[in-house]
Amino acid sequence: MSETQDNTGADQKYFNGYWDPPVALAVCEQCDWVYVLPNGTETHICPHCFSVPLEKVNESLSQQNKLFYVQPPELLLPYKINLEQIHSRIVSFSQGIPFATPDIKRASSNDRIAQIYLPYWLVDSDIKAEWEIEAGYEYEVLSHRERYHQHQGGWQTEQVTEQRVRWEPRLGRLDRRYHNIPVPALEGQKVINQMLGQYEHSDVVPYKAGLEQKALIRLPDRNPEDAWVEAKPILQAYAAEECRIASGADQQRNFRWTSEYRSQTWTLLLQPLYATYYRDDDNKLVPIYINGQSGQIAGIRRASMKRGQRASLWILGAAIFLFILSITAGTVSFFAPPVLPFAIVCFIAAALIAITALIPVARVWQYNRAQRRGETSIP
After folding, report:
1. Which of 10, 23, 322, 358 has its CA 20 to 30 A from that of 93?
2. How confident is the model at residue 10 (pLDDT cuts 50, 70, 90)?
3. pLDDT band with cut points at 50, 70 and 90 for residue 371
4. pTM listed for this prediction
């Protein structure tokens, strides 16, 4: 563990011109995640990949492509899941793992749990556009049809109600400002959403200085220019829906527009995440992530081959004991013939139990093999 230094370099002075109290930067050389952490504290192992300790950033910010945004965030989503609730989540997570490593129970200990805030962009934008759509208006058509019923007197007339849509062209102008359009600030945000679910942005609160004293803050790796490409189709979808409503249509298709975007304003929102780990058979740290808002948990489930092998050895030991007992009983049966059936039963039981000794090892191998096929982690 290395201790962070005071802000004596010009790069740190530039960075801390935005933060009060002063903070430090740390980067993971393994996964390239860059964090904001309290200045003057010891860096620790990366809470994302749990592979290597974090290293303080000493290079000039102008040479750090991933440090394009060094200002404090404006908004955050508070944690709703507390440390007590994490224990029950991890217990549920470990259920179903055959011969789970005993260390998974320690994943809920306070000394392993790290709090991380992940960044997310919110963008406001003015849009001026001319649009046209095909507006669909639903209506019902009442008709009749003849149907032959053999057991009900022959042909009968039935009333049928059909749902139809009348399509009509509509066009107009749009001139308004859209607020808080969510756009990922991380390249791997789609995978994060798949693993941990979407965050609900209705409970945002203003960011308070000093938050990094309790949690690490992950800096964005997507700048607003890159994120804007993804924001445009979201804005178009919002605009298309508003145009449908303005037209009074039940449905709409073939939305087309000529748009002009102006006055984009970007806001950085922080989303809460817990990260912890357990050790596998090779003493490697296996990450577990928990959505700090919903409690949804994700991570790699790994069965313990060592526990499976121990179980197999216990079963094999029982089989050997019964085999020795059958041999002993068989020898005694030469002098006491009634003992022979007992010897035969012991021999058969020993053979059957010896076969089942392979089951624990095979089950662990099959489970881990199946898990590796669909294994994903936060990129």
Report:
1. 358
2. very low
3. confident
4. 0.79
